Amino acid sequence: MVAPVTTVALSGVEALPVEVQVSLVPGQPSFTIVGLPDKAVGESRERVRSALTAIGLALPGRRITVNLAPADLLKEGSHFDLPIAVALLLALGAVPGDVGEDNLILGELSLDGRISQVAGVLPAAIAAGRLGRGVVCPAANGSEAAWAGQAPVLAPDHLIALINHWKGTQVLTPPKAELAQDEGPLLDLADIKGQEAAKRALEIAAAGGHNLLMIGPPGSGKSMLAKRLPGILPPLTPAEALAVSMIHSVAGNLVGGQILRYPPYRDPHHSASVPALVGGGTGPSRARSRWPITACCSWMNCPNSPARRWRRCANRWRAAPSPSRALTAMSPTRRTCSWWPQ
Question: CA-CA distance, 116 to 342, in Å (whole number)?
């Protein structure tokens, strides 16, 4: 018997569907995961085994094979723990057979069965809406998944709570979507006396989303002006907020699952290297080159650094692509101006 469950693999901010297939066949007892898993996915067999034991279920003495299809797509991250466990429960007949067909599942399992927070839940929930499925995610990511608005969300904090919900002995409350709270008053541009030309340039750059380069001797007011730029930036539109929050979600920086309301602000040091400024490495948390679609960055005294560094920064930011083609498919039709603060 093969029990399939749907989850996702993250490629940037795109959530690609992945089918988790579990097969139980007679033979020497073993637990094998195939389908190009990385180290974190390969270690999930120990977390799944311990979590199932913690809730009173022992793995059968059979040969267990877990296939992550498509097999040529690299699977990274600990969010494959929960779909593998659910697929095993399906193969054992411990949960109803339709849960794998109706839901997109992701989450990390602790050794005692608790479901821990993972990254990338927001793009995964949007992908679930496109597929016409519900979402099963950790409780800590519930409000994040609720912003997708297109699919029902289950956000259990423990594996036994999820099983009881599917069996009808417990009801999980749907999570509520939440906005990030204000961080307090920002510095006011009106506090600056004089500098009329520089303040006019800041206003134009903030209103039009333009790059702005300030050059001047120390003490002329560059840093003072730049620190007040976030206070005049317009709030994010709903589409921009989802785009920026998707990037933060994949990077694991979306605090409490609360969607962002204002453009993020970056203040790198003028001695920062090109990889540090525009992005380097393979991890999504370093992908700064894609933030500036709705972000503000202040980089003082950049002429003191090699010219190619700040020119590459400006060119890279100007050419930054839209973070997700999925935005055209998931434009929040159910969320209008009534849900977005003016």
Answer: 34
Residue 61 has pLDDT above 60, yes or no: yes
Counting every residue written for the chain, the total comes to 342
**Across 18-29, average pLDDT:** 94
Nearest to 21 by CA among 61, 71, 94: 71
70: cis peptide before it, omega within 30°? yes
Residue type, 116: S
Helix (H, G, I), strand (E, B) or coil at 203: helix
Give the model's pLDDT for residue 26. Answer: 92
Pseudo-torsion of CA 191, 194, 195, 196, nearest 10°? 100
Q: Cβ(94)–Cβ(125) under 8 Å?
A: no
Element (H, E) at 293: none
B/e letters for 36-62, b = 16+ CB within 10 Å, e = fewer, are ebeebbeebbebbbebbebeebebeeb
- Token look-up 């500036």 returns 292
Question: E strands within 26-62?
Answer: 30-34
Domains, the chain, in order of start with CATH, read 2-167 (3.30.230.10), 189-328 (no CATH)
pTM for the model:
0.79
